[in-house]
Design goal:
The structure holds two protein chains of two kinds.
Chain A (H helix, E strand, L loop, with lengths): L18 H14 L18 H10 L2 H24 L2 H19 L5 E2 L1 E5 L3 H11 L5 E2 L5 H9 L4 E9 L3 E8 L4 E5 L2 E5 L5 E4 L11 E3 L7 H10 L7 E7 L3 E6 L4 E3 L5 H15 L6 E5 L7 E4 L1 H15 L5
Parallel strand pairs in A: 2-5, 6-9, 9-10, 12-13
Antiparallel strand pairs in A: 1-3, 4-5, 6-7, 7-8, 10-11, 11-12, 13-14
Chain B lengths: L1 H20 L1 E7 L3 E9 L19 E10 L3 E2 L2 E2 L2 H19 L5 E6 L5 E10 L7 H10 L9 E13 L2 E4 L9 E12 H13 L3 E7 H9 L2 H6 L1 E6 L4 E7 L2 E8 L3 H12 L3 H11 L6 H5 L1 E3 L13 E3 H26 L8 E5 L8 H9 L3 E3 L18 H11 L20 H11 L1
Parallel strand pairs in B: 1-6, 6-11, 12-17, 17-18
Antiparallel strand pairs in B: 1-2, 2-3, 4-5, 7-10, 8-9, 8-10, 12-13, 13-14, 15-16
Helix pairs in contact in B: 2-4, 5-12, 7-8, 7-10, 10-11
Chain lengths: 328, 443
């Protein structure tokens, strides 16, 4: 295709236009004067868009294309650049390193450092234990502290009933401990152990004489009913000096063991009532001061006494005196 | 005939698709300018207010883009240099698209060249079942005798203008009426086939789909004539750049169209030749100082024409305004006489109303309203196109009569021959409709 000459845009000479002629004359005059450098008079610029420009213009006015170019294409371009950069393993590693470094810098700022640990409400031995199991090297960033994990660890100690952990202002790790208080000594399969009111193990005991103030319980399943045992002991206060301990029998009922091998057998149900009955009898008739081997309250409406051999003999003698017979 | 049917129906379907999409472009390919309007059809915009009706369909659209550019490569309303015209169309379409901020794919075009010729057709047929059905209308349209309009011509418009049932004439819609003998009068407009082909090819090269083609004479009549004039009978004279179109309307139908192959550009070239000046200067002098009635004052008004020969010192000429008028007037008279001949050929004097409306760019020449009655008769007025929503002020002048008319044409086109049903006999043999008809006849 031949190039289009803008002169053709002018109206044809038949239309009466002499523009081309005059333009040609002017051109000839200019060349005759040797004025080649001066630019030709500006021909009217062709206002028509080129075919490609026209097509592109229409494409640009297409709403879907416009939306794509203005909203989706930039996102794609940025995502593509980032993706290409991350496709290189070195770049990825450098990025991760930088992130980790910045994170570490921030975490290690003095504002976030924990310098010491304060333990409240724990005995010396227990605090030693706590320090041992948490095993923290101060100073330490508070981001590195695993407070829930430490709380679990501390609460797993037998002597700890409840614990609270927090990082106090001034970089102090505050640990509030509520200790378990031992209520009874239990003679179990693993030796002597102290139990609290709920029957939870507090600590092992070397010798009974270490804690003479605590009552002793024994028998299989005794540790599961510490509360009942304590209630029985409470009811047995008047005979406390004589009390040796409580024995769980058959994992269902209690025997109260006194000195002189006296035993008070309590029923399965309502042992407190039976105990109160025995205490009343004791106070009224000094029952336990007599030569009784066992007080059987397993049937509360029919208490039974078991006498010692000597008492039995004495009783028989007295009865024979009463009856006037001798069975010997 | 089937070719014509297919092409025109395809265009009509395209127009429906365009209206569905809501945006359609209007392209007026004239000799002096190419105008492009972008219309948006968005349901019912203005549905009438206090004392104002919903208007005759022009309320359903809004002009959202308008652009006009100097036409290139068009002579006498026909495409002369196709590449140039294509570029001009591209310029106009792109500017209109830019203003509309949207892309248009469908375009409805009009042109005034191609030597339009009018034919009156009539057909007559027996009604089949006493009641006129769609099929009867189709058959009577098919029964119209088509004259031999020449091998290289195409039918541009074919509109049924009148139906007659037995002795009753002047029916606009005979369907459902009882009668025996159905007759139809049709108006058919043919133009040079090559002109249409060139225009369609040009538009196709701009990546646009043609959704309709109309004659410039017809569409400027739609916009410039008021409703009463269309009803009672009037002639619209669209004085364009390269040709002057004449259309005669009666009962809201165009019944005749013709064109005089002279226009405003000839006036310009007369001035350019008479005064020995460039066409651009002549055009400028024509628009600033033009007129057709000289007065004594005009003898004293001197116009600097300038030689533009590069010799500014010696070649400086002036003419008086009366000289310019003396050049313009004979040409305008010649144009108007051509119009007179057209009207005489059409038998305009037998119409009940003799109203003539002058519109188009060349009708803006001062003094035309005193010159025209001397040649065309007393009832002459200068008309401007109807106002449509959103049209820029610059595009409301008489030069935009055909562009505005084309908008109205796009909004509610008149039913043409190919919009009616196809008679059953012409259907392909395997058509389901034909089978249905056979069933109806035999059971």
């Amino acid at each position: 295709m031949r190039p289009i000459d803008p002169v053709e845009f002018a109206k044809a000479p038949t239309m009466g236009g002499s523009a081309r002629v005059s333009e040609a004359v002017a051109r000839a005059l200019r060349t005759r004067l040797g004025d080649t450098s001066s630019h030709a008079p500006a021909r009217p610029r062709d206002p028509a868009p080129s075919r490609a420009a026209y097509r592109f213009n229409r494409l640009w006015l297409t709403p879907s294309f416009r939306f794509f170019m203005r909203r989706i294409a930039p996102v794609l371009a940025i995502a593509g650049c980032v993706g290409l950069w991350f496709a290189d393993a070195d770049n990825r590693m450098a990025f991760n390193d930088t992130v980790a470094e910045v994170k570490r810098d921030i975490q290690n700022r003095p504002e976030f450092m924990v310098k010491l640990m304060a333990i409240d409400g724990a005995s010396g031995e227990l605090s030693e234990d706590i320090r041992e199991i948490t095993s923290l090297d101060f100073p330490l960033s508070s981001f590195d502290l695993d407070l829930p994990g430490m709380l679990e660890q501390i609460e797993s100690l037998d002597a700890v009933a409840e614990a609270g952990l927090r990082v106090r202002a001034g970089g102090i790790l505050q640990i509030d401990i509520t200790e378990r208080t031992p209520a009874v000594v239990w003679r179990g399969p693993h030796g002597l152990e102290m139990l609290d009111v709920d029957g939870h193990r507090v600590a092992a005991l070397e010798h009974r004489v270490d804690r003479p103030d605590l009552p002793l319980i024994a028998g299989v399943g005794a540790e599961r009913d510490v509360a009942e045992a304590l209630a029985i002991l409470n009811a047995a206060k008047p005979i406390m000096p004589r009390l040796r301990g409580l024995v769980r029998v058959g994992e269902r009922r209690w025997n109260v063991v006194l000195d002189r091998d006296q035993v008070i057998m309590l029923p399965e149900e309502n042992p407190l009532g039976a105990m109160a009955q025995v205490m009343a009898l004791d106070q009224a008739k000094d029952l336990l001061g007599r030569d009784v081997k066992a007080v059987d309250m397993r049937r509360p409406n029919r208490p039974t006494l078991q006498l010692t051999e000597a008492a039995q003999d004495e009783m028989r003698r007295l009865q024979s005196v009463e009856l006037g017979v001798s069975f010997r | 005939m089937t070719d014509l049917y297919a092409a025109q129906r395809a265009m009509r379907n395209m127009r429906k698709a365009a209206l569905q999409r809501g945006v359609v472009a209007i392209l007026d390919v004239g000799t002096s300018k190419i105008a492009c309007l972008v219309l948006r059809f968005d349901g019912d915009g203005f549905v009438g207010g206090e004392g104002v009706g919903a208007l005759a369909g022009q309320s359903s659209f809004r002009v959202i883009g308008a652009a006009t550019t100097r036409s290139r490569g068009v002579r006498f309303g026909e495409i002369d240099a196709m590449a140039e015209t294509e570029r001009a169309i591209r310029t106009a379409v792109q500017a209109a698209q830019k203003m509309a901020q949207t892309r248009v794919d469908h375009v409805i075009a009009c042109f005034s060249g191609g030597q339009p010729r009018s034919y009156g057709l009539d057909g007559q047929v027996e009604v089949e079942q006493n009641i006129v059905s769609e099929q009867d209308v189709a058959r009577v349209l098919a029964a119209s005798e088509v004259p031999d309009y020449g091998p290289h011509r195409e039918v541009l418009h074919a509109q049924p203008v009148n139906f007659a049932l037995d002795h009753r004439s002047g029916l606009s819609d005979p369907r459902g009426q009882a009668g025996q003998n159905l007759a139809v009068d049709m108006h058919m407009l043919t133009v040079d086939g090559a002109v249409i082909q060139n225009l369609l090819y040009c538009i196709k090269r701009c990546d646009l789909e043609v959704a309709g083609v109309a004659s410039g004479a017809y569409v400027s009549g739609i916009s410039a004539l008021v409703e009463d004039e269309q009803e009672l009978g009037a002639a619209c004279v669209d004085m364009g750049g390269g040709s002057t179109d004449v259309s005669i309307f009666m009962k809201k139908h165009m019944i005749y169209a013709d064109s005089v192959r002279m226009g405003g550009d000839h006036v310009t070239s007369d001035i350019a030749m008479g005064l020995q000046i460039p066409a651009a200067t002549a055009e400028r002098i024509k628009t600033f100082y033009g007129g057709v009635v000289a007065t004594g004052m005009d003898d004293r008004e001197m116009i600097e024409v300038g030689g533009d020969s590069g010799d500014w010192e010696r070649d400086r000429r002036t003419v008086s305004r009366s000289e310019v008028i003396g050049i313009i007037r004979p040409r305008v008279e010649e144009i108007l006489e051509g119009v007179r001949e057209c009207l005489d050929a059409a038998g305009f004097e037998h119409l009940p109303s003799q109203q003539i409306v002058l519109t188009g760019g060349a009708s803006q020449i001062p003094g035309l309203d005193t010159l025209a009655p001397k040649i065309l008769g007393q009832q002459v007025r200068i008309g401007r196109p109807l106002r449509v929503q959103g049209l820029p002020q610059a595009a409301t002048g008489a030069a935009f009569a055909s562009a505005v008319g084309l908008c109205l044409f796009a909004a509610n086109p008149q039913d043409e021959w190919w919009d009616f049903e196809i008679p059953t006999e012409r259907y392909p043999a395997r058509s389901l409709k034909r089978a249905m008809r056979w069933f109806k006849d035999n059971w």
